[in-house]
Amino acid sequence: MALSVYERDDILAMEKRYRAAFVNSLSGFKSANLLGTSDSNRQTNLCIVSSAFHLGANPALMGVIIRPDTVPRDTLENIRETGVYTLNHVQKEMVVAAHQTSARYPHGVSEFEQVGLTPLWRERINAPYVQEAAIRLGLILREEHTMAINGTHLLVGEIIEAHVPDSCISHDGFVDIEQAGTVALSGLDSYHCTDRVGRLSYAKPDSMPEWLD
Amino acid sequence: MALSVYERDDILAMEKRYRAAFVNSLSGFKSANLLGTSDSNRQTNLCIVSSAFHLGANPALMGVIIRPDTVPRDTLENIRETGVYTLNHVQKEMVVAAHQTSARYPHGVSEFEQVGLTPLWRERINAPYVQEAAIRLGLILREEHTMAINGTHLLVGEIIEAHVPDSCISHDGFVDIEQAGTVALSGLDSYHCTDRVGRLSYAKPDSMPEWLD
Q1: Which B residues, 33 through 92, put their C-beta within 8 Å of a C-beta on chain A?
Q2: How large a percentage of chain A has pLDDT more than 70?
Q3: Distance, in angstroms, between B86 CA and closest chain A CA?
Q4: Which parts of the sequence belong to the Flavin reductase like domain (chains A, B) (predicted)?
Q5: A12 touching B (Cβ < 8 Å)
Q6: Residues 6 or more apart from A113 whose CB is under 8 A from it?
Q7: A200 with B92: CB under 8 angstroms?
């Protein structure tokens, strides 16, 4: 394949939207989650995030990146007010509705109603889950870091509730998110179903890994 | 689908490896990259990471999570010594070799040789790229954060070189990583090819998004 090398200055010189599409593609595939929040009056907010990532299993921690300039500030304000939020896996049937949550609706408008998704309330957490999602997580904010270089926020949350379909859990704890219908994202706007290559055994120095299934 | 709710205490009570597999599955699909480093004597190190994520386009920033207790410390020491590292997309043909880099080889052994991948050196950066990878990034360490809650490190790097196949770049800057053969990861050990659903237009409050292709 013919290949081009883009240096730092080439990237800095790109037109703004071109650069956003280009750089957003380079990290690889991303998770697709709907981030649900509420203010203390149960005014709900929902936005798609491609930045949720694993941070640790014990305790069960997840990171999510919030850019105050692109995501509605409601989300960040709600999380700081209530200390909680939900993450809900985006499935193929929900892709258009999920994507539409990134539109800049006015403050006071709930994305749930606008895009046609259903808030699901549970006792333990003052933030709405997405009823249509097969896998849902409720999180408590544990830590916050601000990147000095661009002002982006990293929120570290602990999972206090995980809703998982019984049929997707393997004997060893692995959750088959492909079977649950979860999609992957690439760039800013490209949605992908997945097709499993396989699971590989734990790697050891003296032998090559084997396919588990 | 029958669904179970796992609360915080249920997760904390899980057997260690079961919990690791379970929690690692919950964030959604992950990127699959080979992280290449070198010490000042050009002793190379290579390890698969599922934690690289987009942090900003201007400047072009990427985050990667390093857990000192599970990833060989060589990687972190090399990055701190040289200030640079590479990220190289894992493609389907490289999955077994890429996974094998997670084996705990002794200090002084290069994973490149052990798993059969080829280091590619460039002038601007004292870290090896993976020649077999279709998409390769060279990064300079800009910032480091340590999570108070579990000691995990977030490295923030700026992309100073991006190698991208010409055939994968769209007119608007989007890089088609599916066409490049990049795979996605889920859990600790599950590899997935992707099948594009489509790209959606920029979301606006007064209309629903349209499929771009």
Answers
A1: 33, 50-63, 65, 67, 87, 89, 92
A2: 98
A3: 12
A4: 28-166
A5: yes
A6: none
A7: no
Helix (H, G, I), strand (E, B) or coil at B172: coil
**Residue type present at position A71:** V
Burial class from Cβ neighbours inside 10 Å (0-12, 13-18, 19+) for residue B51 reads buried
Kindly report the backbone phi and psi dihedral angles of residue B193, in degrees, each rounded to the nearest multiple of 5, phi listed first.
-80, 170
The class level of CATH for B29-187 reads mainly beta
Sole residue written with tokens 């069960």: A60
Is domain A14-192 annotated with CATH 2.30.110.10? yes
Residue type, A185: L
Whether A160 sits inside 8 A of B7 (CB atoms) is: yes
Is residue B76 a contact partner of residue B66, using CB atoms and an 8 Å limit? yes
Tell me the torsion sign for CA atoms B76, B80, B85, B87.
positive
Give me the residue label for tokens 């609706």.
Answer: A105
Confidence check on the interface: ipTM exceeds 0.95, yes or no:
yes
Q: Is the pLDDT confidence value at B69 over 70?
A: no
Per the structure block, which two tokens stand in for B31? 């990127």
Chain position carrying tokens 């690889």: A28
Check CB contact of A25 with chain B, cutoff 8 Å.
Answer: yes
A130 forms bridges with which residues in the sheet?
A119
Give the whole-angstrom CA distance, residue B21 versus residue A102.
31
List pLDDT tens digits, range A160-207. Answer: 999 999 999 999 999 999 999 999 999 999 999 999 999 999 999 999
